[in-house]
Amino acid sequence: MLRFVPDKPHANREESVKYETFVRIVAAKVERELFLKQFYKSFALHSGPCVLCKLCVILSPTGPFRTASSLVKEAIRKPALIKKAIRKPSLVKEFGEHRGGIKCRFPQIARPSMEALGIDVFATAKNAGFDLKVITSRSEAPTYFGMILVR
């Protein structure tokens, strides 16, 4: 498990996005290094939604997804897309192919979040020996986590 703690609280959302992007890049680089060392089943995860783009280019039949939750809402409105995606290995690819093959801008970095896979990040971090507390105000620095699964 990877842990990143900023020196100070974030002044604004843009600063937070920069740090979240940094975490994703580091996790992807660690995954790549493990792969090159013959751990070909290594896979990086991060916490929280993807923030690599301001506007996600993976398109639905009705337009661009602005957030992961809008992707879920679209899937609920259009269950045929989910049924179609289940038959193929990549949900992202299937949604992308739905509108002319448009794909993620950062496939080397973008990964699903731990939460999206049902991982309780707080409990997992505590079980890994990290001392955590819930932050209660914006004056406290958040802790960011990444995880590399290796088999």
What report would you give on this structure?
The chain contains five helices and five strands. It starts with a strand and ends with a strand. The protein folds into two domains: 98 residues, no CATH class; 53 residues, no CATH class. The longest helix has 24 residues. Helices cover 37% and strands 11% of the residues. The chain has 151 residues and is an alpha+beta fold. It has a three-stranded antiparallel beta sheet, covered by helices on one side.
Number of domains: 2
What gap, in angstroms, lies between the N and C termini? 14 Å
How large a portion of the residues is in β-strands, by DSSP E? Answer: 5-15%
Strand order of the largest sheet: 1-5-2
Number of helices: 5
Helices and strands, in order, run as EHEEEHHHHE
- Main sheet specs: 3 strands, antiparallel
Average the pLDDT over all residues and give the rounded result: 77
Please specify the SSE layout and strand pairing.
Blueprint: E1 2-4, H1 13-36, E2 43-46, E3 59-60, E4 63-64, H2 68-77, H3 79-86, H4 91-97, H5 121-127, E5 144-149
Antiparallel strand pairs: 1-5, 2-5, 3-4
Helix pairs in contact: 2-3, 3-4
In short:
The chain is 37% helix and 11% strand.
Which descriptors would you attach to this protein?
single chain; 151 residues; alpha+beta; three-stranded antiparallel beta sheet; two-stranded antiparallel sheet; 5 helices; globular
